Amino acid sequence: MSAIDPRTRLLLEAPIVPTVLRMAAPNVLVMLTQASIGLIETYFVGKLGSDALTAMALVFPLVMLMQMCSSGAIGGGIASSIARAIGARRLDDANALVLHALVIALGFSLAFSLALLLGGPWLYRQMGGSGAALHGALIYSNIVFSGAVLVWVFNALAAMIRATGNMLMPAKVTVAGALVLIPLSPLLIFGWGPLPGMGIAGGAVALLLYYLGGTLVFWRYLRSPSSLLKPRLAGARLRWPLFQDILGVGLIGVVSTVATNLSISIATALSGHFGPDAIAGYGTAVRLEYLLVPLSFGFGAPLLAMVGTCIAAGNRERALKAAWVGAAMTFAITETIGLTAAFFPYAWLNLFGTEPAMLEAGAAYLRVVGPLYGFFGLGLVLHFASQGAGRLQWPVIGNLLRLAVAGFGGWLALRWGGELVHVFIAQGVAIMVYGLFIAATVAGGAWFGRLGWPCSTATLLRRLPVT
């Protein structure tokens, strides 16, 4: 049996709090930087006018859906499978999972490209797009989703590297890419000297160039002696059980991710009943909520690796304790951000536009939903930890509950003649239900058997099957 890699030993034996913090720090940086890439584009595109800002508000939920599916859902399935293989010291399977993960990423990228290239015009109209805003949305969408393969392969490779406990490498690549994107995006959008401006299309091209560069760097690292994984593609044989190992976690995560983004897309459509400025205001404000996703993933990715590795190695008590440590940290950080946004909404909104109606709608959202952001972070980080445990059923139900409360509540608000703020109240209640439900199911033993409250760690451990 091969010796345990030093990174794997840290996951299994090092003190939980400093280990989570040490692993989360570069991962939070990488995730926030990656989310900031969309904000950078929105900032520069906003200079083109309100129609361009509305166009971005229409497309942004779909771009984030692809980003969250590729990094958090399927990416989580990839990381979970590899982490469990490493924890069980099945290094041959861990290496073989690289090829299977790439095949899955290619398949999903093709599905996204076809769906948005063919169905984009109908979808953006249903979300309230029309006129110049719809035209801009289609330009941006068609370019980004034509290159969906770059996004999917980039995030698949990053997930493989994080599964080994290496959070620093993805952080370096993402930060370096963002530093390149900051001047590249306005250069392509507005032009300079003899280079003509491409408008909103320039932002889409800059985004794809970022993912192309990062993909090449990640692949070079995986082929280097520094990588714990040693992928072999030539002559490798595809095995259905390895596909099942990834998809068993990843597909459930996709359902959860779709529900999250559908909640926001529905809210965008409901906001459209109050005019294009309401769409722009909500779309601008909700970008802060999207920023909480990578922040939570910054803690969730190391938890996923730690939980998966520890459970595979038979140390389930450590896995559960790590999850609650990460959950407490994430709740505190996301709640602080939400309260700050609720008290000072214009500090965020003024970054993207100055139209009074847009600012009013965005401020209303942040004042209502911001104080509940802690529950959003709580649910998300436990979702990622549950990926490591290979038990995602209850987090998915939590996401579906959020979708139901947000959609039905918003519909009732409109049917009963409510204002835009009542649509936002439904969104806030939905987020609180989401976080509390997932926390309650994990506390009740969802990872290890039947639910039952109250349930202490000792009680959970007594329920565990002997393996």
Key attributes of the depicted protein:
467 residues, mainly alpha, 2 strands
Q: What is the residue-averaged pLDDT?
A: 82
Secondary-structure content class: mainly alpha
Describe the strand arrangement of the main beta sheet, using strand numbers: 1-2
In total, the number of strands is 2
Shape: globular
- Oligomeric state of this protein: single chain
**The biggest beta sheet, please?**
2 strands, antiparallel
Question: Which stretches of 5+ consecutive residues score pLDDT under 50?
Answer: 452-467
Strand content: under 5%
How widely separated are the two ends?
Answer: 19 Å
Tally of individual domains: 1
**What Rg do the Cα atoms give?**
22 Å
The number of distinct helices, counting runs of at least 4 residues, comes to: 17
- Secondary-structure element order, N to C: HHHHHHHEEHHHHHHHHHH
* Proportion in helices: over 70%
Structure description:
By secondary structure, the protein is mainly alpha-helical. The chain has one domain (14-463). Helix content is 81%, strand content 1%. The protein has 17 helices and two strands. The chain has helices at residues 6-13, 16-46, 50-87, 91-126, 131-146, 148-163, 168-190, 200-222, 240-271, 276-312, 316-343, 345-349, 356-369, 373-389, 393-415, 420-443, 457-463, and strands spanning 191-192, 195-196. A two-stranded antiparallel ribbon has the order 1-2. Helix 5 packs parallel to helix 8 (200-222). It starts with 5 loop residues before the first helix and ends with a helix.
